Amino acid sequence: MAVKGLGAIDQQYDGSSLRIGIIHARWNKKIIDSLVNGAVSKLKSLGVKEENIIIESVPGSFELPFGSKLFHDKQKKLGKPLDAIIPIGVLIKGSTMHFEYICDSTTQQLMKLNFELNLPVIFGVLTCLTEEQAEARAGLIEGKMHNHGEDWGAAAVEMSLKFN
User: Which pathway is this protein engaged in (predicted)?
Assistant: First the structure.
């Protein structure tokens, strides 16, 4: 099954006025690093200034929702509010139900944050059955798939600007 990615956007967006936060889990470092790099690369290509891309980390994907809220609140308190947050994590199925519980709870809470914070919170969590699937979606397997971090960076810029 081919994954096509974000594809064409309906217009070119200029992200030069945006401050985008990326908060990532530290589990599965090789995959996470590739996804973060993909998001940063896409943000820069859409005009977001390097100094306006703020990156933080949390222990794991389960911590992404609360970490995203604290990240948002900290930046706002500093007088430098974010225009979007990209929480990045990787969940790989093991032999227990742990995977399903973490995927479901993390997904639901990140979705709710869009409305609670009133800004785009992009769903940047891979939920894969195997490590190979995660590596492919992080662009680490040549010719298999693209880096999904790029899609998340593009979505953050588009959602921050489209309806303003």
Answer: Cofactor biosynthesis; riboflavin biosynthesis; riboflavin from 2-hydroxy-3-oxobutyl phosphate and 5-amino-6-(D-ribitylamino)uracil: step 1/2
> Which listed residue (72, 98, 146, 148) is catalytic?
98
Quick check: is 12 in a domain? no
> pLDDT tens for residues 100-154?
999 999 999 999 999 999 999 999 999 999 999 999 999 999 888 899 999 999 9
Which residue type occupies 163? Answer: F
Residue 145 backbone phi and psi in degrees, to 5: -150, 180
d(CA 122, CA 21): 10
Q: Give catalytic status of residue 146 as yes or no.
A: no
The reply to whether 115 falls in a domain is: yes
For the chain, the domain total comes to 1
- At 97, which CATH number? 3.40.50.960
Domain that includes residue 111, residue range: 20-33+51-161
The stretch 49-60 carries a mean pLDDT of 98
- The gap from C-alpha 108 to its chain's centroid, in whole angstroms, comes to 15
Nearest to 29 by CA among 118, 105, 89: 89
pTM for this one?
0.94
C-alpha 25/C-alpha 89 separation (Å) is 5
In the predicted structure, residue 2 carries a pLDDT above the cut 60: no
